Structure formats: structure tokens, C-alpha cells
Amino acid sequence: MRALGEYEWRDWQRLRPLTHWLKTLRYDLQREAYVRRSARTEVTFVGQLRGRRVLVAIAFEDPEAIEMQAQLVLRFVPDVAYVIADMSVNEDAAGAIAAIAVRHNVFYVRLPRSPLRRQDQASRIHGLALNWVWRNIIRPGGPARFGFIDHDIFPTGPDDPFAMLDRQPIYGWVREAGHRWFLPAGFSMYRFDAVKDLPLDFGQDWFNGLDTGGANWDVLFRTLDRTKLKFASTHFAPYKPGADQVKAPFQWCGVWLHEVGSTQREGHATLAADKRRVIKELLAPHLARIDQPANNQCSR
Description:
The protein is α/β, with parallel strands linked by helices. It has a domain of 187 residues: Spore Coat Polysaccharide Biosynthesis Protein SpsA, Chain A. Helix content is 35%, strand content 18%. The strands form three sheets. A six-stranded mixed sheet has the order 3-2-1-4-9-6, sandwiched between helices. Strands 5-12-11-10 form a four-stranded antiparallel sheet. It has a two-stranded antiparallel sheet with strand order 7-8. Helix 4 links the parallel strand 2 and strand 3. Helix 3 runs parallel beside helix 4. The longest helix is centred in the first third of the chain and has 20 residues. It is globular and about 60 Å long. The chain starts with 8 loop residues before the first helix and ends in a 5-residue tail after the last helix.
């Protein structure tokens, strides 16, 4: 929540400092309860992550996206341990995603059932998933580098998203809210030795206007000199000529193509289906050239 000095008189009249404090306490308690839950699948690979470069995708109900992402990450991202952390509710979708992990010889965990269900809680659900992975896989696993990506972002060419961590502690695309800034969960990379002892929280801080990942403002981002950091270049564009850039955008982050799942979450089913069609057409040439046996060598 905001520092008390940032609240205006009208906020105090409406008791916002108190209500914000109570809601933040509730969110914190919910997070702590969730990260103590056991995964719905056995986790036996944590010890295999030590000293490695780990890229975690938070999956949710979309085997098709994970199938494409797994192949492209293993083809284009060098020397990566790719982990699928599955938040799917639907049993068929979860089964299909687990089968994809087996087929491509990558790490898989089905996360604990979320206490949240509503569509408008998607960002908070995502934050819980990230915090569970941080507490139960990344921090005990001790990788050299780690990163989080959305399940609908795809590399379209060779790229090392961890390379910039040789000169700085974090890397990714950046978002701003007033004087605050943060790395969104969809493409964020961290040097483990720089953050391993911090009380990280990959959830939201809505009272400061910060989406998933923004709760790390106080413990991480505000301590860094932003002028000395380099971030990933990114821009939004209509997914096809004439499309609405607000309702149906693509996001480019270098060679990474982000489908932007908000189109589906906001109920634009027809647009979302057409975006997926275009995504598949764009990725088809890259997927067709994949030599699958060679790719599996860098996953585990």
C-alpha cells in the first residue's frame, strides 16, 4: 500500500488508509497460506536447477499455446531449463499440458488449486502462481538466472533473455505507474544471487497502480538506479491491418511475440480466435524447421 504521506485529505475522510491496510493484510495472508500448499503433482526436479538458467511459463487452460512455446523456447533460447507451472482448472487441459511436458522432456508442475476463481481475479491468480514457484522451486533450487514468461509469448528467432544479467540484476520489459516502475510478470528475468535474500512478492500492488510483479517495488525496484539499467524494447501493434489495437493487440518484445491474452479474458472470443489463427500462421515457418531430438538436449 502507499506510504501514509501519499494519502490526500479526501482519502483520510473515506478511511482509505485503513481499508487499504486491511485489504493488503488479507492479500498477504492469502499469499502465505497458498505458498504453503502442496503441488498437485510430485516435484522431483528442484535439485536439477542449481546453477542453471531457468525459464518458467505459467500455464492456464491453453495446451495449444504451451505446445508452440515449448518447441520455440527449446529451439531459440540457449542452454535453458524450461519449466511449465500449470494453474489450469480444467482436468483435460491440465492433462494435455502435462503430456506436452513429457513429450518435449521439460519440467512440469501442476500448482495447488487457487482459492480464487473469478475472471476479474486473473492478475491475482497469476501473482499467487508466481509466488508459489518462487518459494517452492526457484529459491530452494538456486539457479544462476531465472525468469518468468506468460504462456502466450513466443520467441521467433534466437535470443538469450538472460544475457543482460551479466551486467545488471534484472531485465525485461518495464511498466510505469507514476514515479514507480516494475517488471511485468509476462517477461521478467532475474539474477538469483542479487535477489535470493529479498522477501520478494510477485503479486500486485493495486493501491499504487502496480499490476502482477509490482509488489516488488519496495523490496527490489525502488532500490535500483533505473538510469543505469537497460530494459527490453517493446511495442504494441494491431494483430492484423485494420484491427483494433486496444481490443486486439500483439506485443513485440524484440524477437518475442506476445499474443496478449486480455482479448480472451475481456470476452472478445471472436477476436481472440482470429488472433490465435494469425499467431499460428506467423509461427508455422519456425515450428516447421524444428529438429525436435536436438532441442530436448537443453531442457533437462
